[in-house]
């Protein structure tokens, strides 16, 4: 397979950043209030801001890359191409609805089932992270200053920090006890959730993230960012990420294999009643 040219990836990345920044303006207009909330079939909320932001992103991306396919959280998948844009207009809609700033706009590009770039714009939180394959990861703060995002060196176990997200399925497996073993031997556990713990991981503030219940749109952009910042990102069984991904294990390279050994095969076992 011929590798994608760096100039193409840079062009696609700049387009994704522009689309995400425009969507963030749409979202900001609603964040002050005055929007309606509906429930999807899975009981998760969706707002006017989600739908309008996704349409804004779609318009910008497909104007530049009309031959590409598109997969959005709110309006689904369309088109057939080796290139697929993966978009979650508001990752953290529940936070958005309750008026606290823990949400971001995420855009990723997949080429032949490989994630090659990612953008995460957390406007109300005050930072944007982005990365493309082979190009490193970068952070833009609320003052507009840009710097590289890098994982921290892995500390000794007693100083490690782990963040967890949705864990319902893991909690129903025998491997729930394995999480308890991990927690007993590290410095602290947190539940930053949504985009935030992946941002913190990529910029060296924590050392691992575990989630057992998500979809690829929740993490596609963040996976590229974490990897380019020096981390490892698979599902909880160690598999490569794809459209069917439902779990995440992201960490420092020095800790990933140890964590993976504790959770491998977890979906095949149900906890005793």
In whole angstroms, how far apart are the ends?
49 Å
What is the helix fraction of residues, given as a range?
Answer: 25-40%
Number of helices: 8
Tell how many strands the DSSP assignment holds: 15
The overall pLDDT, averaged over residues, is: 92
The main pleated sheet reads as: 8 strands, mixed
Shape: globular
Oligomeric assembly: single chain
Secondary structure class reads alpha+beta
Task: Give the SSE order as H and E letters.
Answer: HEEHEEEHEEEEEEHHEHEHEEH
Poorly predicted sequence stretches spanning 5 or more consecutive residues = none
Topology record:
Blueprint (H helix, E strand, L loop, with lengths): L5 H26 L5 E3 L5 E3 H17 L4 E4 L3 E3 L4 E9 L1 H5 L6 E8 L2 E9 L4 E6 L4 E4 L5 E3 L12 E4 L3 H4 L4 H9 L3 E3 L5 H7 L5 E4 L4 H13 L3 E3 L13 E4 L1 H11 L10
Parallel strand pairs: 3-5, 11-12, 11-13
Antiparallel strand pairs: 1-2, 3-4, 5-6, 6-7, 7-8, 8-9, 9-10, 13-15, 14-15
Q: What does this entry show, briefly?
A:
This protein has 273 residues and is an alpha+beta fold. It is built from 8 helices and 15 strands.
If you had to describe this structure to a student in words, what would you say it looks like?
By secondary structure, the protein is of the alpha+beta class. 34% of the residues lie in helices and 26% in strands. The chain is built from eight helices and 15 strands. The strands form three sheets. An eight-stranded mixed β-sheet has the order 4-3-5-6-7-8-9-10, sandwiched between helices. A five-stranded mixed β-sheet has the order 12-11-13-15-14, with helices on both faces. It has a two-stranded antiparallel ribbon with strand order 1-2. Strand 7 (114-122) and strand 8 (127-132) form a beta hairpin. Helix 1 packs antiparallel against helix 2 (48-64) and helix 6 packs parallel to helix 7. The protein is globular and about 50 Å long.
């Amino acid at each position: 397979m011929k590798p994608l040219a760096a100039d193409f990836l840079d062009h696609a990345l700049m387009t994704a950043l522009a689309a995400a920044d425009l969507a963030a303006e749409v979202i900001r207009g609603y964040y002050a209030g005055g929007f309606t909330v509906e429930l999807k079939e899975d009981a998760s909320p969706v707002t006017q801001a989600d739908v309008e932001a996704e349409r804004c992103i779609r318009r910008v991306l497909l104007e530049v890359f009309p031959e590409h396919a598109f997969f959005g959280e709110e309006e689904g998948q369309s088109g057939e191409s080796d290139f697929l844009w993966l978009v979650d207009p508001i990752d953290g809609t529940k936070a958005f609805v309750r008026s606290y700033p823990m949400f971001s706009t995420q855009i990723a590009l997949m080429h032949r089932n490989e994630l090659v770039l990612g953008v995460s714009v957390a406007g109300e939180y005050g930072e944007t992270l982005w990365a493309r394959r082979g190009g490193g990861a970068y952070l833009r703060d609320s003052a507009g200053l840009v710097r590289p995002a890098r994982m921290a060196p892995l500390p000794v176990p007693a100083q490690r920090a782990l963040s967890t997200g949705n864990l319902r399925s893991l909690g129903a497996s025998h491997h729930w006890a394995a999480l308890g073993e991990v927690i007993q031997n590290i410095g602290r556990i947190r539940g930053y959730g949504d985009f935030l713990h992946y941002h913190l991981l990529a910029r060296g503030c924590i050392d691992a993230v575990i989630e057992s219940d998500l979809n690829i749109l929740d993490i596609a952009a963040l996976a590229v960012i974490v990897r380019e910042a020096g981390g490892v990102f698979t599902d909880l069984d160690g598999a490569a990420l794809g459209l069917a991904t439902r779990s995440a294990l992201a960490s420092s390279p020095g800790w990933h294999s140890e964590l993976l050994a504790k959770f491998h095969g977890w979906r095949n076992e149900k906890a005793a009643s």
